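Case study 2.
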Amino acid sequence: MADLSGTAATDTAQRLCDFAPGDKVIISDVIDHEHPATKRLLDLGFLPGTEVLVVRRAPLRDPVVFELRGNRMALRRAEASRVLVTSSSGGPSDIAAGVAGTAKTSGSAA
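Prediction:
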């Protein structure tokens, strides 16, 4: 398999396992296509161009729950580190902010 170190793809891409809950990212590549775990990730929909939301992380940082293509799945950090991503233009998810905003406005007006 080709070594990706030092290429333009890895200069701007980060690993999926390094993002915090609420972050939205776009998959740029999945490394080591011949590895069985990588093949399974591709089968599950971790394909370049797919938007992924980091939903939550277990207390010891492993596993991490991701949402993509309308599905949620948990991956170990080892598998998530195979997925290279770039930050989506939206940055941190607005989902949590929207939920918090509705909780504040649900009170009665004086």
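The longest helix spans residues 95-105.
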